[in-house]
Design a protein that fits this description.
The chain is mainly beta. It has one domain. It is 6% helix and 54% strand. Strands 1, 3, 4, 6, 7, 9, 10, 12, 14 and 16 form a 10-stranded parallel beta sheet that branches. It has a 6-stranded parallel beta sheet with strand order 2-5-8-11-13-15, with no helix packed on it. The longest helix is centred in the last third of the chain and has 7 residues.
């Protein structure tokens, strides 16, 4: 698993293979067929396009997940979510639209 800690700030896009644990800040897009975990202290300003996602932190941008997208109670999402499967825990903040199902994901295109 690749890990980016709280003190990491990236201005640019990220791609990774299997798994990414992000607790820092990314100002750019994240793309992978793998699993992204956005930690509680993380901030992403950009598009997240992955195979699976677990979100505890803040995402300001659209999210496209080929499989399951879990938005935990500590998360704040400002943007649209498209996922084959979508779980939103009580307490999470979500400002946007959601499209759920394999047809919606197919229309959004594959993760890189």
């Amino acid at each position: 698993m690749n890990t980016l800690d709280k003190d990491v700030v990236i201005k640019g896009s990220i791609s990774f293979g299997q798994q990414l644990m992000l607790d820092g800040t990314v100002e750019g897009d994240i793309a992978s067929a793998g699993t992204a975990t956005i930690g509680e202290s993380a901030l992403v300003k950009g598009t997240v396009k992955t195979g699976a996602a677990v979100i505890f932190g803040r995402v300001e941008g659209n999210i496209v997940v080929q499989g399951r997208c879990e938005v935990k109670s500590t998360a704040t999402i400002i943007g649209d979510i498209t996922a084959a499967s979508f779980q939103l825990e009580e307490g999470a903040t979500f400002q946007g639209r959601s499209r759920v199902g394999k047809a919606a994901v197919a229309a959004a295109g594959p993760a890189k």
